[in-house]
Q: What sequence folds into this?
């Protein structure tokens, strides 16, 4: 057997590499607090804004998680979780999500475009939020995003998402929303993420469209699935609303075991343009309930699933991916 000789340059590089490994911070969870300056918090480092906590909190190290405990208050700020802040958790410490509110009021016109209007932007993987409200208070002024989620393995539990048009931009990656509330009027859940909504209330405030999913090819694994959801409405105009319309040609949205109100259009689904016939969409329901569940009135280009077909859209299967992510188990570990 031949012995490989490592010369001095290589030994020097190995020494440097070893030094880097030795000085790298080990994985260690970091806990910090956010509260208004006049409000006390129990222990730990305290910051007056959420963005300041993101910018200045210690690095948890590889595999560690940053927990930001947010005290009850209304935080008038725009927040960006940058790609170098993976494994970040927002924990609202109020009795319910209405007590911890992150709010701004930019719209597409004031911000220079829809995709610059968001109150909160998530760009790092493994993000979590529990007991927090994300709001865009611009009102009926056009596109105004409350939160933009461009992150894989994102979990939202006991959260509220408030806006009018384009409230929740579920743009990229696998995302799980459980026991939450999402409100809006037009296309207020939109994007091309692989997103699952379980035991959520979806509330429409005026005649419009719940979803505008944007899958671009038939082989993409993206789409929106709602399971055991409840659709509610506070609109009193008497005009119908729709479950969704296709922002892109292969739009995919599935409702399982969902309660639907009387004000839902009997057609249920809408084309993007008037008199258009969508031919490549995947719009489906299984075991819809309530006065809005009228399968006989749905268009031919939507479908009613069998139990076997519906099984492929369960959270554990739909969100699994190559890493076998178990989103529900992760959500259950949150407070």
A:
């Amino acid at each position: 057997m031949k012995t490989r000789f490592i010369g001095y340059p290589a030994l020097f590089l190995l020494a440097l590499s070893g030094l880097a490994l030795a000085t790298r911070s080990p994985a260690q969870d970091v806990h910090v607090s956010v509260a208004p300056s006049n409000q006390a918090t129990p222990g730990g480092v305290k910051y007056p804004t959420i963005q300041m906590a993101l910018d200045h909190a210690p690095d948890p190290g590889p595999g560690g998680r940053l927990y930001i405990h947010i005290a009850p208050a209304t935080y008038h700020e725009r927040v960006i979780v940058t790609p170098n802040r993976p494994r970040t958790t927002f924990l609202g410490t109020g009795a319910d999500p209405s007590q911890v509110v992150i709010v701004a009021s930019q719209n597409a016109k004031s911000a220079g475009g829809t995709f610059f209007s968001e109150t909160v932007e998530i760009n790092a993987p493994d993000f979590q939020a529990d007991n927090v409200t994300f709001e865009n208070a611009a009102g009926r002024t056009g596109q105004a995003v409350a939160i933009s989620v461009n992150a894989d393995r994102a979990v939202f539990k006991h959260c509220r998402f408030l806006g009018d048009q384009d409230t929740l931009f579920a743009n990229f990656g696998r995302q799980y929303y459980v026991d939450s509330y999402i409100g809006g009027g037009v296309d207020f859940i939109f994007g091309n993420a692989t997103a699952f909504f379980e035991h959520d209330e979806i509330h429409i405030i005026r005649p419009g469209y719940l979803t505008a999913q944007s899958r671009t090819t038939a082989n993409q694994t993206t789409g929106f699935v709602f399971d055991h959801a409840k659709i509610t409405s506070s609109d009193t105009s008497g005009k119908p609303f729709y479950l969704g319309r296709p922002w892109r040609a292969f739009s995919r949205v599935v409702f399982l075991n969902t309660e639907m109100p009387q004000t839902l259009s009997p057609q249920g689904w809408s084309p993007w343009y008037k008199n258009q016939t969508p031919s490549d969409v995947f719009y489906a329901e299984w075991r819809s309930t309530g006065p809005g569940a009228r399968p006989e009135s749905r268009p031919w280009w939507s479908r009613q699933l069998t139990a076997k077909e519906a099984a492929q859209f369960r959270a554990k299967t739909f969100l699994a991916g190559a890493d076998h992510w178990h989103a529900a188990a992760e959500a259950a570990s949150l407070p």
The chain is about 15% helix and 35% strand. Confidence is low (pLDDT under 50) at residues 1-24.
